[in-house]
Structure formats: structure tokens, C-alpha cells
């Protein structure tokens, strides 16, 4: 009986360790998007990750459905994949060489979150994963309070606008600060500065002349 306690403890610990390892593996089995939230009106780079095939079959294509409220999307080139720009609400990546099950890759889309999207809105991006054998449609909606479906659609939750929305394509925008001096004030400051230099120079000349007279 004394041996049963350590054996039971060891079995419990082993089971807990197995659950701890299997939980993240199960979570990573989905097609996911990062970040999972973005501010209304902001420009975001959404990265979709795939790390498995269809029941072990290599992945040959990924088709991402873009919400109708998003008018423009710029897909990032992925080496080893052909990409079709936004067509009929979809972005399609086609593998030049099928991605083996167990290998991970990512697909990044640059887009703007709708400025009129309400805080808490969910923007779903259903993904069709095509494989050499079969396909998996990651399109099921996640309903709050219900168990997560087997094939949830990647989704982004809208957060409050920050008032500092980014600018796409690396555009640089300069905004004048309210504390910057006006153009007229700048000119006046320069004139006063020049006047001060002149006065200082005259004073130096007078001082030198006075010193010479004192030494004569």
C-alpha cells in the first residue's frame, strides 16, 4: 500500500504534463491570425499562420476571405508561393511545392480596419486550406459562451480608435504642433538675434579701444 501513493502521484504528474503539452499543440492546430485585435481606422499587418496539413496531407493552397467592409488589401509575397491580389473578396496563395504536414508558414496582409467599425465588432477572415488530399474550411464562427468549434475562422476584434491611425505604404505625414512658433515670430526672433550680435560686436570694439587708451 505504501507504494501505491508514489505510483499514483507519478501517474498524476505524468497525466498533468501530458495535458500541459497537448493543450498548446491543440490550440496551434488551428489557422490563426495575429494580432487578434486592432483599432478602428488603423492600418494593420495581419499575419495568418498554418502549421499542419489536412489530416496529414501536405498543403497546396490557402484562400483567405476578406470582409466586405475592407476595400483594399495588399498581400505580402511569400517565397515558394504564388499570390493572387484581392479578387472577388479573396486573396489566394498557391504553393509551388506543397507544404508538408508539421511545417509552419505565414501569410501577411496589409489593410485598414474600417473607421466606422464599432468597438467589439469581430472581423472574420475565413480560410480555405487546400491539400493534396482533401481540404479544411476554417470558417466556423466563434460564439461567446459556447464551446469553440472544430474549425474556427481566424478573426480580429475591433478596439477603440486611438486617434493616431498609422499610414499605409510608408507614407510620411508631418503635422504642425500647436506649440511651434508662427512664421512671423520666427523672422522676428532672427532679427533680434542679429541685432544682439551687432550690439555685442560694437561693445567689444569700444572695450578694446578704451583699453588701448588706458595703456598709452
How would you describe this protein?
It is a single chain. This protein has 216 residues and is of the alpha+beta class. The protein has helices spanning 4-27, 183-215, and strands spanning 32-34, 37-39, 43-50, 59-65, 73-75, 81-87, 90-99, 105-112, 122-124, 127-131, 135-138, 155-159. The strands form three sheets. The protein has a five-stranded antiparallel β-sheet with strand order 6-7-4-10-11, with no helix packed on it. A four-stranded antiparallel β-sheet has the order 1-3-8-5, with no helix packed on it. The relative contact order is 0.16. Residues 1-28 and 168-189 have low confidence and may be disordered.
**Uncertain regions spanning at least 5 consecutive residues:** 1-28, 168-189
Relative strand content: 25-35%
Largest sheet geometry: 5 strands, antiparallel
- CATH class assignment of the largest domain: Mainly Beta
Structural class: alpha+beta
- In CATH, what is the homologous superfamily of the largest domain? Uncharacterised protein YcnI-like PF07987, DUF1775
* Outline type: globular
Strand tally: 12
Helix coverage percent: 25-40%
Q: Going across the biggest sheet, name each strand in turn.
A: 6-7-4-10-11
Order of helices and strands: HEEEEEEEEEEEEH
Estimated radius of gyration:
32 Å
DSSP helical segment count? 2
Distance between the termini: 118 Å
Query: What is the averaged pLDDT score?
Result: 77
What is the CATH fold-level name of the largest domain? Answer: Immunoglobulin-like
Task: Count structural domains.
Answer: 2
CATH architecture of the largest domain: Sandwich
Amino acid at each position: 500500500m505504501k507504494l501505491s501513493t508514489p505510483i499514483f502521484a507519478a501517474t498524476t504528474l505524468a497525466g498533468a504534463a501530458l495535458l500541459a503539452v497537448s493543450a498548446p499543440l491543440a490550440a496551434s492546430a488551428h489557422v490563426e491570425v495575429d494580432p487578434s485585435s486592432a483599432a478602428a481606422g488603423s492600418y494593420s499587418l495581419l499575419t495568418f499562420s498554418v502549421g499542419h496539413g489536412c489530416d496529414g496531407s501536405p498543403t497546396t493552397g490557402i484562400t483567405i476571405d476578406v470582409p466586405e467592409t475592407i476595400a483594399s488589401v495588399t498581400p505580402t509575397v511569400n517565397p515558394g508561393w504564388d499570390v493572387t491580389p484581392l479578387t472577388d473578396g479573396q486573396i489566394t496563395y498557391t504553393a509551388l511545392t506543397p507544404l508538408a504536414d508539421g511545417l509552419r508558414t505565414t501569410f501577411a496582409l496589409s489593410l485598414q480596419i474600417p473607421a466606422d467599425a464599432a468597438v467589439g465588432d469581430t472581423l472574420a477572415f475565413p480560410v480555405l486550406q487546400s491539400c493534396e488530399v482533401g481540404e479544411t474550411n476554417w470558417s466556423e464562427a466563434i460564439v461567446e459562451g459556447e464551446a469553440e468549434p472544430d474549425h474556427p475562422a481566424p478573426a480580429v476584434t475591433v478596439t477603440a480608435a486611438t486617434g493616431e491611425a498609422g499610414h499605409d505604404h510608408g507614407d510620411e505625414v508631418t503635422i504642425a504642433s500647436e506649440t511651434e512658433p508662427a512664421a512671423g515670430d520666427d523672422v522676428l526672433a532672427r532679427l533680434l538675434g542679429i541685432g544682439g550680435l551687432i550690439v555685442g560686436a560694437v561693445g567689444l570694439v569700444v572695450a578694446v579701444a578704451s583699453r588701448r587708451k588706458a595703456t598709452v
